[in-house]
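#onboarding

Welcome to the new folks! Below is a worked example of what a typical request in this channel looks like: someone posts a single protein sequence, and someone else replies with the predicted structure as tokens. Don't worry about understanding the tokens yet, we'll cover that in week two.

Example request:
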Amino acid sequence: MVSAADVVALRAQVSGQVLLPGEPGHDIEAFTFNLLTPLNPAVVVAASSPQDVQAAVRFAADNALGVAVRGGGHVQPDPASSAVLITLDAMNSVVIEPETRTARITGTPRWQDVLDATSGSGLAPVCGSAPTVGVVGYLLGGGQSPVLGRSHGYGSDHVTRIEMVTADGELQVVTAEHELFFALRGSKGNLGVVTAVEFTLFPVSEIYGGGLYLPGERLAEILPAWRDWAETLPEAASTSVAIQRLPPLPDLPPPLQGAFVVHIRFSYVGDAGQGAALLAPMRDLGPALIDTVGVMPYAAVGAIHSDPALPVPYCDRSIGLRELSDQTLNTLIGLAGPDSDCPLASVELRALGGALDRPPAQADAVSSRGLAYQWFAFGVGGPEDAPGLRAYLARCIDELTPWADERRLLTFLSPDEGGTRDELSAIYGPEVYERLLIVKQKYDPQNMFRSNHNILA
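Example response:
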């Protein structure tokens, strides 16, 4: 229990806001993108400087509290009860250095902030499918890009400098020579509060990309064709496919309002004519309800997946798949096809490979190299719908288990996954997990940073 005197003392040390439950501004700082995973911290510190973060961490240590960080708010495995929640939005900045092709971000900007800052520079970051995702959380989890991933690897491969506050309240500068450099890139916030990151940008200004929306009733024909075609693509091309039951929203194009569709996503970094030739086998499947594929500025990459832009209540699960055999695809069709009772809004497969399989120049804790496919699904609904959605997601995981790979994309772990030591150790692999555990015990021996997919002895 935090005393009033303790809070008064903390406010005297912090230039940003210190907020208790019920006070104006508390709920804004404690928001989550997933409305089914609310945060309930004992205290919120809206930090405006690294010194504020240091004061908040020391306050947590003095009061035997945990520390949680809210970035983009997409993945919050723990409600942060009895914790100090640190938010960094008041610190947000993005600085681009075109000469060195480097971005420096402070605080927790979203990817769209970086995309806007790089627009017009001819440079691009290795970013994800959703521009609303926080940059730091993405990079700490590895970060798979649906555009540059297969040609450039994970986002964390290109991090060059991290500034962070560790459990002792000290500000650390972490570069390749530091033992934390390995562990931070993949450990998803288990080791401290990151206040700034620098990473490399790449000379890409536009791409050939978008999506084909085909009738969902043709899923049994489309899915094997997509699998066979995806295996032929060069590393400059990326693709995923999503089986979607879209809501009847007026802001969707009329053909998609309330529609059951197969959404083939595609991107190519190179000549538009070559990109069109690569996509031709999918276009040859027949007329699309909508075809959005064309030349686009890199800053608009979020349009390829068209992930929800505003917070929604959802349940999600993920699993890595080592192969897509005919039997695997038949199982997917049974789970999400036109004759199923599927309540999920989206069931997605991402084809990986290419540079995502290659080790980075500096070793890291990203454990999904060599994974062939990532399966991810979510259902939208309020608390009354959650039990049914979770049950269906669990059924999907159970039926796909014969083709499962223990590896999976760390940034796709849901609050319902990776909750035990054994499960998380299997995802990382025992060798990487034990190495992370050694670093965790050295820099956070009291497990202060535990409101996450927690690395435990």
